[in-house]
Amino acid sequence: MMSATATPQEELRELYRELILDHARKPRHFGRLSHASHVAEGINPLCGDKLKLYLDIDADSTIRDAAFEGSGCAISVASASLLTETVIGMPAAEALSFFEAIVATLAGNDQQRSVELGKLSALMGVREYPSRVKCASLAWHALHSAIKDDSEPATTE
Length: 157
Ligand code: ZN
Hints:
Layout: H1 8-25, E1 38-44, E2 49-57, E3 63-71, H2 74-87, H3 92-106, H4 133-147, E4 154-155
Parallel strand pairs: 1-4
Antiparallel strand pairs: 1-2, 2-3
Helix pairs in contact: 1-2, 2-4, 3-4
This protein binds zinc ion.
The site of zinc ion (ZN) has 8 residues, from helix 2.
């Protein structure tokens, strides 16, 4: 819990932690998308996270809808949930920019960010725990595979 003496950094970390837990407990857009045009699976063998990401991309290359199903740790589920909230209504090309920014930032590279991460910054707390970075990036790799129509399952390995 937040204490009265928490620094702004500590308060931000606590808010991010609560955001992650909220999305892990109540994932948004969880389930199958019957009208999906693009589907990709993601597997993180290191942690046992598995997910299937569904996208409905229209003729204008805009992501009209997104959903995911699967099972995994809190970080992987929260990341997929935040992903769906982020990309719905977004041009596929912009979603790929988010993929690049998330993967680069998780890898510790803050320089080449082309988009504002907003609440996705909450995912960056895992940079302190290198073994969890793949949990956070899994859904984004699946996003990349889905948009690129890659039939191979996305894996973090
Ligand atoms: Zn995990």
